[in-house]
Design goal:
The chain has 463 residues and is of the alpha+beta class. Helices cover 33% and strands 17% of the residues. The relative contact order is 0.12.
């Protein structure tokens, strides 16, 4: 007898998939942890129906792992909980065939639940679902999309041990130039991007424009807008997996570090978000262009007022903080502006109907579920308390106030601010907040006690 899936998945989806794909031999089942890492299992074809009928037991400790896969006991999810099993259930609509696998495999995203069906609230996807439900209770329905920036790197380091841009897949041509917006440069990666688009089509992902970005080896893929923000975050998780897998098949490394090359811009994960009411009207859209709606201004005010305590979500790793340098297209202050890429919160050009906020602080190394949950909470906070965002920033946003009191200036300060933040605890939920902050504190300690090569270069023979 089948159980009722708390995720809304139905066995009919699995049956239809198996019938349409008789050659599929196995399926990757993917649970996303606090760092955005996919963890789970590869099951055989004959196990898929049981997954949809009864879920799959997975240990709760999966949600308490650091970036290396080590247990973080301070999360309370390891021995405090006896490392017991929870039940993972498929996310409806994410079961799809994978491109280029041999033997043929599929993939499905999962969400974690207690054995009685209640959400396991250290699952990042549930944190976002909770904020979407909060919006719905106020008659609001968020829509959005993420942009994916990344580097394509050679598997081999250069003579100095540094990472280097990948050679063109088409003909092996090398380039160390920025190549921003160069279409000819994109042609060199055409076989890889063709496979990425083919894989996205198989998974039903609305992958759209690709550009050569503002650093050697850097690219950007955009995703079409979704009226369901949960689906938009699922899209980003799946697109990252596609890019990584297809790059690997072509002998390259797809890099989602925020700042892999010191002298060039890092990679962001801009989040475009708008709000619709129960009639489907965009509440940010003004009647006359430039006459800003109070809801839009208050949303900006909420995001600005909570940005400092939220920065750990947007910049969760040691490397994340190397991205924030002046004039590098990564905002260094909580500012807003119109058609201005030097601010944290940009209102893009493009007309009243498409009015939205482009949230720019997050690096591509951030977890999209937690980013979206925190952004939605900030918007609701601003609307509820009618927070004034202050004057629009025009011109150079890097010249705005960058004091420690506004945005933390390093990873350690961000961890302290996030841990003490009642706003972030409410935005993520108490369990997810505790889990996330404990994991980040453990990773900070790991980095702090590691002696980097630069220490030897500077001090070994000098002091």
């Amino acid at each position: 007898m089948s159980l009722i899936s708390p995720s809304g998945s139905r066995p009919e989806e699995a049956r239809a998939f198996l019938d349409a794909n008789p050659d599929i031999e196995a399926v990757d089942i993917i649970l996303t942890d606090a760092n955005g890492i996919g963890r789970g299992k590869i099951i055989r074809r004959h196990e898929l129906m049981a997954l949809y009928e009864n879920g799959r037991h997975l240990p709760v400790s999966i949600m308490g792992l650091d970036i290396t896969g080590e247990d973080v006991h301070e999360t309370g999810l390891i021995w405090d909980a006896g490392d017991g099993d929870m039940r993972a259930w498929p996310v409806p609509g994410t079961l799809a065939r994978l491109h280029g696998t041999l033997p043929a495999r599929g993939q499905v995203l999962m969400s974690l639940h207690h054995l009685d069906g209640a959400p396991m609230t250290s699952d990042p996807r549930h944190a976002l679902r909770r904020q979407v439900e909060r919006c719905a209770a106020r008659g609001l329905h968020p829509a959005g999309a993420f942009e994916l920036e990344f580097f394509l790197l050679a598997n081999e380091r250069d003579a100095a041990g540094r990472v280097q841009p990948a050679r063109a897949v088409l003909d092996g041509r090398a380039s160390a130039k920025t190549e921003v917006y160069s279409v000819d440069h994109l042609l060199g990666m055409e076989p890889l991007f063709s496979d990425i688009y083919a894989a996205a089509k198989l998974e039903g992902l609305p992958a759209e424009t690709v550009i050569s970005e503002y650093a050697p080896g850097q690219y950007e893929l955009t995703l079409n807008y979704r009226t369901d923000v949960l689906q938009a975050a699922d899209d980003l998780i799946r697109l990252k997996r596609i890019v990584r897998a297809q790059a690997r098949r072509h002998g390259l490394t797809a890099c989602f570090m925020a700042k892999p090359i010191a002298d060039y811009a890092g990679s962001g994960m801009h989040f475009h978000v708008s709000m619709r009411d129960t009639e489907g009207t965009n509440i940010f859209a003004e009647a006359d262009e430039g006459a800003w709606k109070p809801e839009l201004l208050h949303a900006l005010g909420g995001l600005i007022s909570t940005m400092g305590e939220s920065m750990l979500v947007f910049a969760p790793h040691a490397n994340s903080w190397r991205r924030f340098t002046s004039q590098s297209y990564a905002p260094v202050s909580p500012s807003w502006g119109v058609n201005n890429r030097s601010v944290a919160l940009r209102i893009p050009a493009g007309g009243v109907k498409a009015r939205r906020i482009e949230h720019r602080p997050s690096g591509v190394d951030a977890n999209p579920y937690l980013v979206a949950a925190t952004v939605l909470a900030g918007i609701l906070h601003g609307i509820e308390y009618r927070i004034d965002p202050g004057p629009e920033t025009t011109g150079n946003g890097y010249a705005a106030d960058t004091s420690e009191a506004v945005i933390p200036r390093d990873w350690g300060a961000a961890i302290r601010a996030a841990t003490a933040s009642d706003f972030l605890k409410d935005a993520l939920g108490a369990d997810m907040h505790r889990t996330f902050c404990a994991i980040k504190a453990a990773e900070h300690l790991r980095v702090a006690r590691t002696i980097p090569d630069v220490d030897y270069a500077l001090y070994l023979h000098e002091v």
